[in-house]
């Protein structure tokens, strides 16, 4: 029994026209989409569905390229290996389609379907590689040339069916049924991926129906099953591109929120640190800041003598009671520049304790805690300036006042 083949070749004496050109264009689109999808699926975060789509697109591009090569030759000796190569790629395309559709539809058991498809088409692939003609044709003969409506002439190839002819097309129809099942699963989940797959299945079903009618009726025309693969690449590729764009937009939004959250945390940490080391009323450094500063200075200066002088303001309690704490706070702010004016370095710690304690004033003289001839290089503490005034290098102690917060103590008159 002889059946009409679905592979055609244009005559050598005719230039390549619309039909073959459309196949080459479709081949280029599939190859480009395949390379792009493979690179997108392997770079950075791995996307298995993009990898599967890329492999499928590359195989489809190779299939269309071989089809275009067959259409350009009328030599039977060259057409036979090209047809066998086409069927070799077809045996690879259908397992790749199961791989991609299983991931695209997010099926839980897609690996089992892939193994089953690989076993069936793997067996057909081995038979095709070692056959004289192909897995579905026992022999191939050249048929009459076909004149297409737009003036292009192609040659038709026919052949007798092999024993595996029915097995091959039954397995092919099973893959189409698997694709329909994936589409139904997507519709049940109300997934946006259902529309592209549905549209492709309609196009592929129409092309398969046209090819079956041509084969059964013995019509002298071409089939469009190969070009229907282009719809798969375009529709699925556009859907995956949209999803990739949505993920990129979401990632950009998340990065902006993360940066804003980081800035807020830094501001909160800065505020908490300021509250921990400064008096809430006056804003001056508190005892904790002075303690940390003194400890840091002593840790750096392991040798030598140090000087620490305690100062108090005369009649400070009287001012607080008579004029209120706001006036006392203003006095602390005004007194600090006067202390810094006679010191060797700015001393923002000088009046910290006075603002925090509101220590009562007495008439006792200031008591120097310690004097030393060796200067101290005080390191900077967080948000505070040195609290230890360096003593002069000569033998006489430095009597210039450097204030420090401390417990209630006798007050003394400040230097005028």
Would you kindly provide a written description of the structure presented here, covering whatever features stand out?
The structure is a single chain. By secondary structure, the protein is mainly alpha-helical. The protein is 59% helix and 8% strand. A three-stranded antiparallel β-sheet has the order 1-3-2. A two-stranded antiparallel sheet has the order 4-5. β2 and β3 form a beta hairpin.
* Low-pLDDT sequence parts: 1-16, 346-416
Please state the structural category: mainly alpha
Helix content: 55-70%
Largest sheet: 3 strands, antiparallel
Task: Sketch the topology as an H/E string, one letter per element.
Answer: EHHHHEEHHHHEHHHE
Please report the distance between the alpha carbons of the first and last residues: 125 Å
How large is the share of residues in beta strands?
5-15%
């Amino acid at each position: 029994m002889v059946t009409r083949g679905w592979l055609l070749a244009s005559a050598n004496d005719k230039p390549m026209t619309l039909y073959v050109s459309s196949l080459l264009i479709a081949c280029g689109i599939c190859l480009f989409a395949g390379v792009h999808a493979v690179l997108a699926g392997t770079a950075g975060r791995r996307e298995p569905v993009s990898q599967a789509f890329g492999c499928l697109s590359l195989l489809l591009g190779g299939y269309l390229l071989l089809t275009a090569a067959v259409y350009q030759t009328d030599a039977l000796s060259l057409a036979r290996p090209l047809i066998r190569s086409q069927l070799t790629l077809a045996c690879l395309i259908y397992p790749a389609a199961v791989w991609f559709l299983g991931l695209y539809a997010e099926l839980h058991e897609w690996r089992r379907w892939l193994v089953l498809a690989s076993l069936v088409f793997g067996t057909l692939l081995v038979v095709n590689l070692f056959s004289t003609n192909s897995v579905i044709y026992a022999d191939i003969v050249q048929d009459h040339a076909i004149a297409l409506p737009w003036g292009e002439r192609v040659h038709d190839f026919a052949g007798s069916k092999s024993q595996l002819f029915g097995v091959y097309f039954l397995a092919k129809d099973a893959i189409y049924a698997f694709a329909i099942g994936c589409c139904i699963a997507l519709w049940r989940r109300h997934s946006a991926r259902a529309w592209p797959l549905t549209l492709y299945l309609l196009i592929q079903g129409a092309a398969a129906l046209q090819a079956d009618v041509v084969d059964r009726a013995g019509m002298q025309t071409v089939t469009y099953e190969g070009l229907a693969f282009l719809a798969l690449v375009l529709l699925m590729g556009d859907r995956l591109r949209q999803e990739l764009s949505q993920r990129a937009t979401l990632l950009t939004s998340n990065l902006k929120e993360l940066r804003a959250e980081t800035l807020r945390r830094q501001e909160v940490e800065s505020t908490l640190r300021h509250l921990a080391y400064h008096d809430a009323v006056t804003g001056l450094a508190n005892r904790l800041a002075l303690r940390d500063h003194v400890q840091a200075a002593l840790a750096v200066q392991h040798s030598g003598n140090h000087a620490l002088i305690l100062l108090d303001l005369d009649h400070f309690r009287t001012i607080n009671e008579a004029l209120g704490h706001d006036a006392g706070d203003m006095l602390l702010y005004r007194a600090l520049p006067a202390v810094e004016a006679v010191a060797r370095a700015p001393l923002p710690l000088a009046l910290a304790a006075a603002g925090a304690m509101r220590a009562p004033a007495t008439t006792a003289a200031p008591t120097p805690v310690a004097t030393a001839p060796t200067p101290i290089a005080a390191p900077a503490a967080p948000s505070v300036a040195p609290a230890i005034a360096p003593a002069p290098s000569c033998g006489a102690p430095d009597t210039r006042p450097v204030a420090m917060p401390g417990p209630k103590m006798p007050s003394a008159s400040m230097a005028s």
